[in-house]
Design goal:
Length: 311
């Protein structure tokens, strides 16, 4: 083999593939013609000096989806691609994929139960008007608080209703009452009980998971005193519909759960499509616990979170 040709081909390949030089720049640097550079690069590939791997993120996502589906016994897993492993970036892409999935999935006369929070609001903002008839959209949990922190409860259910050509059904109550007896009396009101019953009848539920970290939305809304927060941090890993559960997906405080307004977690297991929308490292433990509790049969997440769930 011509040693000089070998040396030139390797140097040309380094400049082209590693340093992003153009073929003309390489020609000037090596003192050869541009066609010669092209032949040197081709020679480098033929001799195995250069190996090109093409990574198709969609192909990898399909593999991750199938592995998650198998590991957690899910009907469907939608893994979207996020270019950055940051919570806000992941939320943006997971929300977009969820909206696309809902647009593909929702049919005439479906009843869609929705929750609230920043993730759900991000999903709602990605929805586009659909030509469907007889769809109902209902709030699955109360969304009123005396805090100045925005839950996006009304905005979320409104945007869902607009997208699916219907009127929003609100649950205009605090999500957690101070007193169990008061909560029970309020739920007996025929207007409130009708909304709660509609949530039970929903064949599609769309929700996310919260955490029990210091900055958790429910903690910032002022529903819990310090002792209750410490209890949830000690025994819980996350919440769905403001119902807190442990690492096995079991309710971690019956007393707090009995004061909570909205759908009970076992009801989610009865849905045709129980869609968990969540991503980001801070939510991995809560997602695992939610899946352990079998509260979702469909998961929408990103590739970073998927890899952590499979680890």
């Amino acid at each position: 083999m011509d040693i000089e040709k070998q040396r030139l081909s390797i140097e040309a390949a380094r400049l082209y593939y590693q340093s992003d030089f153009s073929q003309q720049e390489i020609a000037q640097r090596l003192g050869v013609s541009r066609p010669t550079v092209s032949r040197l690069l081709q020679f480098a590939k033929e001799q195995g000096y250069v190996k090109i791997d093409i990574v198709d993120p969609h192909e990898d996502l399909n593999v991750l989806s199938k592995k998650l589906q198998s590991k957690f016994g899910l009907d469907t897993v939608q893994v979207c691609y996020s270019p950055l492993n940051t919570y806000e970036e992941i939320k943006k892409h997971v929300a977009k994929r969820t909206a696309e999935y809902l647009i593909e999935t929702v049919q005439d006369k479906d009843i869609i139960g929705v929750t609230w929070g920043t993730t759900m609001y991000a999903v709602a903002r990605q929805l586009e008007p659909q030509n469907v008839k007889g769809v109902e959209v209902v709030q699955l949990k109360g969304g009123v608080s005396h805090s100045h922190v925005n839950t996006y409860a009304a905005e979320t259910v409104n945007l869902f209703a607009e997208a699916f050509n219907t009127v929003a059904r609100y649950l205009p109550l605090p999500v957690i009452f101070d007193n169990t007896d008061v909560k029970r009396i309020v739920e007996e009101d025929r207007h409130i009980s009708r909304i709660i019953e509609l949530g039970k009848q929903a064949n599609i539920a769309v929700f996310t998971v919260g955490t029990v970290k210091e900055d958790a939305l429910l903690f910032r809304l002022g529903y819990f005193n310090e002792d209750e927060q410490n209890l949830l941090k000690k025994n819980g890993v996350g919440d769905i519909c403001s119902r807190f559960f442990d690492k096995n997906g079991n309710i971690c405080s019956e007393e707090i759960n009995n004061r909570t307004v909205g759908i009970d977690l076992p009801e989610l297991r009865k849905k045709d499509k129980s869609i968990l929308v969540a991503g980001g490292q801070r939510k991995v433990e809560a997602i695992k616990a939610a899946l352990a509790g079998k509260y979702a049969n469909i998961l929408v997440t990103d590739q970073f979170t998927a890899q952590s769930l499979l680890a």
